[in-house]
Amino acid sequence: MNVDQARVHLVGSLPFGNAEDSFRAVTNALAGYVGWIPDGEFGERLNWTAMLPEFVYPYEDDLVEVVAPPERTLMQPPVSDEPIPGELPGFWTFRIKPGHKLRFNDLIYGRAAVASYQTFRRLRDAGEIAADVRFQVSLPSAHSGIESYFDDHTQWPEAHAAWIDGIGREIDKILAVAPATDLVFQWDCANEFVDLGLGDTRVMNFSPHLTAAEKFERHAGQLGALGALIPSDALLGFHWCYGTWGGWPAVAMQDLDACVRLSNEAVRRISRHVDYIHMPVVPRPDDAFYAPLRNLKIGDTRVFLGMVHPTDTIDDFRRRRDLARKYLPDFGIGWVCGFREVDAHGGRTVLAVHAANAAEL
Q1: For 298-319, how does the pLDDT look when each residue is reduced to its tens digit (9 = 90+)?
Q2: Helix, strand, or coil here: 236?
Q3: Residue 190 belongs to what domain range?
């Protein structure tokens, strides 16, 4: 399926517990609507980057642990209507040991994707997944993988560089078993949008003091390196994420301005083609929410708007769709983020809502 034919995009996390169940559930609900399928991000990856201080960072010889929770795991806080206030303390943090040069030896993403791709390929070869559907690999950006877990921000540049090197080797592991033409690589950027959503306020109490404009330039500065890791025969996408820590959005989402500006920067700074961008949409957007789309300068990059809100009616979806079309005539759809927080039955219901909404495009 060509990128511009895809109507539905799934951000990554699904509630089905393993790759085979995820592939089957998505195919059963959305065949003909999706051009690529994620494995659901189960196992260690279930809680997104919160797996890193539990399963990765303690086992790196170049790092020393500074702060850890007593239970040695990071769990989502209770859902609240209150956004993240900023100036958060470190929950589980690390530093680079003096005299050491940081190198990540195993970030887990490569071996997880290799195992899931084998399942994907088996189902596709059996005709259970369409021949033109690709396997989606979702990866955290450097800033999202590092900045909540390293409490000395003067070490961030070295840690970012180590992340780019390490995640590049994870990508190489995947490419060793899967042709690039079978793959979609998506960079998930969440810390970036929580940071931007807080304006001049810091996310963590150890983050550097920067203005909103300085934050934007800093986050945009990583995009070229992220894009350069993805081979041209694979598809490249970005998920602009407002965070689900304590409920979505983690910070107030006033409009699509930050999404549009960072999309423009991604296309401008990355030498290869950016195939798609995913932007979340609030349940009750108005004209002002969508208006920044008139400033989008991304050529033929496909836009997926996260306007599927499964508890709303089809009329609510149509209203969101029609308002968006005033500023962007053609787009695909998805949910605002992943949906690991529902159970498997609820997940199938959510996928059915995606299909019903896609039929309205």
Answers
A1: 999 999 999 999 999 999 999 9
A2: strand
A3: 3-358
